[in-house]
Amino acid sequence: MVAKRLTVAQRKEIFRELVEIQDSLQDVRKSRQIIMEKHRITDHQLRKIEDEGIRRQWPPLDQDN
To answer: Which residues have a Cβ under 8 Å from the Cβ of 53 and sit 6 or more positions away?
Structure first.
């Protein structure tokens, strides 16, 4: 799969979806697979998005519980 360039807005959306799926499924591997297939991104891209989202406290991480 050829890695495609993603905008910040796209990366934030992917991160938000990943966190929400992980919260509902409680299965990290399955949630990662769902997101990679839906957005046609590589595992490497998703890991970079996860790291960036955590580091920058992207939503939903920045929301008070």
So the answer is: 11, 12, 15, 18, 19, 61
pTM score: 0.87
Does residue 14 lie within any of the structural domains?
yes
Q: Any alpha helices (H) in the chain, and if so which ranges? A: 8-25, 28-39, 43-56
> pLDDT tens across 40-63, in order?
999 999 999 999 999 999 998 766
Question: What contacts 14, CB < 8 A, 6 or more positions away?
Answer: 6, 35, 39, 41, 46, 49
Range(s) of the domain holding residue 37: 8-56
